[in-house]
Amino acid sequence: MTEKKEIYQQAIKQAKRTISWATLLIVVAVIFTIQLTYFPRFFSAPNENISALDTSAIDPMLATMNLNPDEIENGIHIPTGLIVDDGVDQVIMTCGACHSLDLVTQNKADRKGWKDIIVWMQETQGLWDLGEKEEVILTYLAKNYAPVDEGRRRNIEIIDWYEL
Length: 164
Known about the structure:
By secondary structure, this protein is mainly alpha-helical. The protein has two domains: 42 residues; 97 residues, no CATH class. Helix content is 48%, strand content 4%. It contains six helices and three strands, in the order H-H-E-E-E-H-H-H-H. Helix 5 packs across helix 6. It is elongated and about 105 Å long. It starts with a helix and ends in a 20-residue tail after the last helix. 10% of the residues are buried.
């Protein structure tokens, strides 16, 4: 009777061990899936391996981007919200590869300020060396997203008068 009891206890221990390992594997798989879903860059190679001139390594779709004239309204590229001007394609490909372009449109800085932001991203966020693109990007950002100094609100413009 004791022999059967020992066999039974060993079977219980083995079952507990198997359940523990299975649970651990499931937890690891869930954590991996969450990381991959919400933080895909966590598993990517460091950005210093990406050439400044090889944007296709970031996203092949972005490298072949052409602005569709139907997506431009009042000088704004509707899908991105960026002002259409020389260098907008470089900003879309380079800045949009890592973050929302809303971060560009909601900020204002002069050329030095934009350069400081780029240097900060390179030092702390893994932004690669922009090479020749940096000049084009800085010119675009300084021209189109510079601080505007308006001392007071603009005058109200009345377009059409009507009789009361």
